[in-house]
Amino acid sequence: MPGNTDTGVLVKAIDINVSYGGRSVLHKAGAEVRAGEIVNLIGPNGAGKTTLVRALLGLLEPAGGTVVRRPGLKIGYMPQRLVIDPALPLTVNRFLALGIPRHAAGLGRRRAVLEETGAGQVADSPIQDISGGEMQRVLLARALLRDPDLLVLDEPVQGVDLGGQSELYAIIRHIRDDRGCGVLMVSHDLHVVMAATDHVICLNNHICCAGHPVTVSRHPEFVALFGPTVAAELSVYHHEHDHEHDIHGSVVPLHEDGGGNHHD
Q1: What values do phi and psi take at 24, rounded to 5?
Q2: Whether residue 192 sits in one domain with residue 107
Q3: What is the CATH number of the domain that holds 203?
Q4: Terminal CA-CA length for the chain
Q5: How many domains, in total, are found in the chain?
Q6: Residue 44 has pLDDT above 50, yes or no
């Protein structure tokens, strides 16, 4: 695909059409992620979220539409889950080095990204022995080894308890702030979407609505998908959520603009 002429845009999909077995999965769907922006893709099961992400990453050629990526774009991908053979003798450090170029996965680099994600204490642990929350941090660290311009995170808090979810989303925000990278998340945790996202895309085969989390939560198509009770709870949650969590889970006040970096 041709490079993007807008240097702020990392990746952009326009009017994407995908069908499987004669069934439309995506119809004129689109998404855009800019540098320094956290975008969250939400929608019910079967809405086409994974298909749209695969198209954005170049892993799937759509039947119609256009995907534009910034030339030389480096992408770090965090899968929803990873199954590792429990009989395989593998430490976290060795796991991080698998499939990564040697110059990018030296011991110092591996330890640095583990510290960045709050998982430094498990560097030498057998990967089968770490907790679900620690595993998600390790997967995030692995995505960072490539020094990505764009982080793609598929259900990053899968299998993590509520306290751990707040900490992990705080880490993701800090990574965005420190590195200036774009972040595309797929998530079902709508309450966290309200607190941790700059831009929400609600997908159900097509783009139902998109924009700031509060705007999306009040959109008629969002309400039709998730119900008026959920939509009302999210609006109240956003207005009452007057704090955020640092990378250690401690409560800190939001900035005067409501917390996080918002991009017009």
Answers
A1: -70, 125
A2: no
A3: 3.40.50.300
A4: 26
A5: 2
A6: yes
Asked if residue 157 and residue 118 are part of one domain, the reply reads no
CA 207 – CA 96 distance, rounded (Å): 36
Is 190 inside any structural domain? yes
Going across the sheet that includes 9-20, the strands are: 23-34, 9-20, 64-69
What one-letter code names the amino acid at 206? H
Taking all residues of the chain, what is their mean pLDDT, rounded to a whole number? Answer: 84
**How many beta carbons lie within 10 A of that of residue 191, not counting itself?**
15
Q: Which of the listed ranges 99-103, 122-126, 187-191 does the model predict with the highest average pLDDT? A: 122-126
- Which residue's entry shows tokens 């807008």? 6
Tell whether 228 and 160 lie within a shared domain. Answer: yes
201 and 108 co-located in one domain: no
Structure tokens at 133: 């929350």
pLDDT reported for residue 38: 95
Q: What are phi and psi of 151, to 5 degrees?
A: -100, 125
Q: Does 115 lie in the same domain as 219?
A: no
Same structural domain for residues 163 and 225? yes
The answer on 241 and 157 residing in a single domain is yes
Q: Are residues 258 and 163 located together in one domain of the fold?
A: yes
Identify the domain containing residue 134 by its residue range. 81-147
